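hey can u run this one w/ fe (ii) ion bound, need the structure tokens asap thx
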Amino acid sequence: MLVIDRVEGSPARSRPVYCAPGTMAGHLMTQLKEIHRFLACATPEPWLEWALANPSILLIDHANCEKKAASTALNMIYRYIDRGDLLNRMSRLAREELRHFEQVLALMMARDVDYVHVSPSRYAGSLRQHIRTHEPARLVDMLVVGAFIEARSCERFAALAPLLDEELQTFYLSLLKSESRHYLDYLELARKYADEELEPRIALFRQVEGELIESVDEEFRFHSGVPA
Ligand SMILES: [Fe+2]
Ligand SMILES: [Fe+2]
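ok here u go:
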């Protein structure tokens, strides 16, 4: 294992990022830094401790997140059939998310983690409350929300990886590459389809997302806030 870099910024962001030799190219590190700039805050340390204390829920909720990511992409494919670029990118994204889902399932089976029902966190629902209802604003907001969810997932995989066993660490680092590409896909599509300045929408969702991450949450989930 190799310390390849430190993500600069707040104390939480200066944690070392580890990777097995050859698994993370320099451009990925650059993307991770961009993701830290995109997000309002880094994952707080208490959430990381919460995650380590809930290894089964971490895997189950992760599986649910991959499943939900695929289904969100599929819904967009049904709704926006006149947007060729979106159709291609969301189709590929949905396939990748389902592949991730299968990978998490395999890990759960190998570790005897029962796939029990786990309620979704408040995170995605709270972000979606701010999505406007008229088009193309609805599409643009959905894409911005998608970018934030992917960016946070990527940031959390990177923050968790050094703290986990070797198998999970390798898996989470392998996810960084696709999740950071998903973040870019969503953001580029939002810029392409927006008929307005995108920055105010990004700023709004950045603030809402940051508050969800830094405020107290009731239950541990992959995208939850911090414990009381
Ligand atoms: Fe994924
Ligand atoms: Fe993703």
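The mean pLDDT is 90. anyway lmk if its weird
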